[in-house]
Write a structure and sequence with these properties.
alpha/beta, five-stranded mixed β-sheet, 41% helix
Length: 221
Amino acid sequence: MAETLERSRLHVEGTDDQNSLVHLLRRNGVDYHPDKFEDSPSHLPRFVQLRSVEKLLDGIETTVKTSTNRIVGFLLDADQPLANRWQSVSQRLKNVGVGDLPDSPPANGFIGESAQFKARVGVWLMPDNVRDGKLEDFLKTLIEEHDPLIVHAEASTQLAKEKGAAFSEIDKIKAIIHAWLAWQKEPGLPYGLAVKAKYFRHDSPTAAVFVEWFKTLYRIS
C-alpha cells in the first residue's frame, strides 16, 4: 500500500489489537486485505503498533501535531479506572488544540478536531468507553452471552485461582478468554485468527458501536 502525506492512522497498543480489529472490520464490510494489511486500499487507515500504552499516550501530542490534513485515531485499554485513562488522553488532546472534550468519554467513542493542527482525531477506550477493561473484555462481548463454554471458562478460571493459579486479578479476563479459545475447533488460535475463523461474533452491540465509530472517524461509507 502506497504511503502518502494524507494517509490516516490508527494507533493501537499491539499485535492482538490490530489483528482482532482488522478481521472484525473485514467481517463488517471494511475492505482490508485478508492477509497483507499493508496492501489494503489507501483510504483505509494504517494501524500503528506502539507496543505499550505508555508509548501510545506519550506519542499523542506529537502525532496530532504531525497529522495536518490527516485523520488519526487512538485505541487503548481503559484498564482501571476508566476516568483516569480518559483524563490522561483528554489532557494531551487539549494540549494540541482539540476542542469540545467532554468530562468522560462518549459511549460511542470520541471524535473531534484540532483546528490548530488541522487534524481530525478519534479515541476509543477498550472495551466500550464506559467500563474499565481491555481488549479481552471487548472480545468477551463478541461471545454469545449464554454460551456454555464461556460460562464454564469463567467458573474454571475462578476455581484455578482458588487453587493457586498465579495470574493477577487484572489479568483474569485474559485467562478466561484463553481457556475459552482452548476449547474451540482449532484450539488456542490467536485472537485475530479466532475472529477470522468466526469463533467470535462480528455483530454484537458493542462491535456495532465500534464499527460505526471507525467508519464515522475515517469517513468510510
